[in-house]
Amino acid sequence: MQKKLIAAAVAGLIAVPALAQTNVTISGRAVAGWESYKLSSCTTGFSCRTESRVSDQSSRIIFNVNEDLGGGLKAWAQMDMRYANDLGGIGMTGNTGLGLMGSWGKFTIGRWDVHYGELGAIEGNRAGSLQTLLGPGIMSQVSAATGGGLVTLGNGTRTPNLMMWDSPNWNGFTARLGYTTSFAAGEGSGRSLTGTPNPGGGSAWTGAVRYNNGPWTAGVTYWNGNTEARPAAGASSFDQDGWKAWAGYTFAMGLKVGLGYDRSSVDRSAALGDATRSAWMLPVSYSWGPHAVYAKYAHAGKVSNIANSSANAWGLGYDYAFSKRTSAGVYYTKLSNSRGAFYDMFALGASGATATAVGEDARQIYIGMAHNF
What does the alpha-carbon distance between residue 56 and residue 129 come to, in Å, rounded to a whole number? Predict the structure, then answer.
């Protein structure tokens, strides 16, 4: 026992210099609630059911560390662990990376949210489910195949294998430029059979310019992704290309209005033709005291070369802030697909709800609570 105590004391003394030179902060968000989720217009041979469940909505614990290297340069790292309040489990699946930062901006290498979540500047709420968010949902998705097949530009989650630069704030303007050696998974092998696709041929890059100053917010973001294992000439590659633009204004009395636009394309074979669609979103919110109400509508237009492929989504919500860190609310979200469309609510995998099939509709009633720390 005495040897164990001495070893522990020595280990503690060794760790002290590192801790003394490194600043560590812990933050996070606990968010969960009850939802009633229902599909309608189910495909032939299936019955639509109502699902009642407790669902976690991406709760997280975040560790941030930084070290002053002198001369205005700092080293930093972030470890973002997501955990589930409903079923348990924890993983390092959030925005996680390391790099350097200074007056020139911030360099990141790791995995991070890029492109798909930028419309969060004009929509959002304090305690809602991920499924209430239309920006990373219908506004980032393309119903890219006849009879089903959904592609989310920017992954709809953290992009791996990423190297990224974020600018400093220039009088309200910020910029981002990122490159990934493989945006969907691990990089491919350096050896493949002659005449077969290059398993390491994938990559993606993204850029964004934003403006946030006073009551105004605006910006534009671009994404271009080439998949791994390049197909034969003329075959479907499902490469991605898309851009978003948005603007919002907050009035002094608490009213906030916004407008978002997205145009995205997915490469298919020469015979099928590319799948391209435009989408727009109109979010409105009003807050007074601890109260806030939300309304939003989004429309994804017909996808080129796919019949009956448009979709609509809308949502309503109310939440109450008990404090600056704790809120609760109730929200309603509805998604309607045309009979050839295949859109889905955002991050259904997080709640465990059933994804839509082609032509099916979905609705969610959610009552939830969130605490930030």
Answer: 8
Q: Report pTM.
A: 0.90
Q: What is the pLDDT of residue 7?
A: 44
- Asked if pLDDT for residue 3 goes beyond 90, the answer is no
Domains of the chain, by residue range, sit at 28-56+110-189+199-372
- What is the band of 4 on the pLDDT scale with cuts at 50, 70, 90? very low
DSSP 330: E
CB atoms within 10 A of CB 59: 20
E-only strand ranges, the chain: 23-40, 50-56, 59-70, 73-83, 90-91, 96-102, 105-112, 141-143, 150-152, 159-166, 173-180, 203-213, 216-226, 240-250, 255-266, 275-288, 291-300, 311-321, 326-337, 361-372
- pLDDT tens digit sequence for 266-320: 998 877 889 999 999 999 999 999 999 999 999 999 999 999 999 999 999 999 9
pLDDT of amino acid 303: 96
Interatomic CA distance for residues 162 and 222, integer angstroms: 15
Top-level class of domain 28-56+110-189+199-372: mainly beta
Please name which of 312, 294, 292, 316 lies closest in space to residue 302, comparing C-alpha atoms: 312
Torsion angles phi and psi, residue 224, rounded to 5: -140, 115
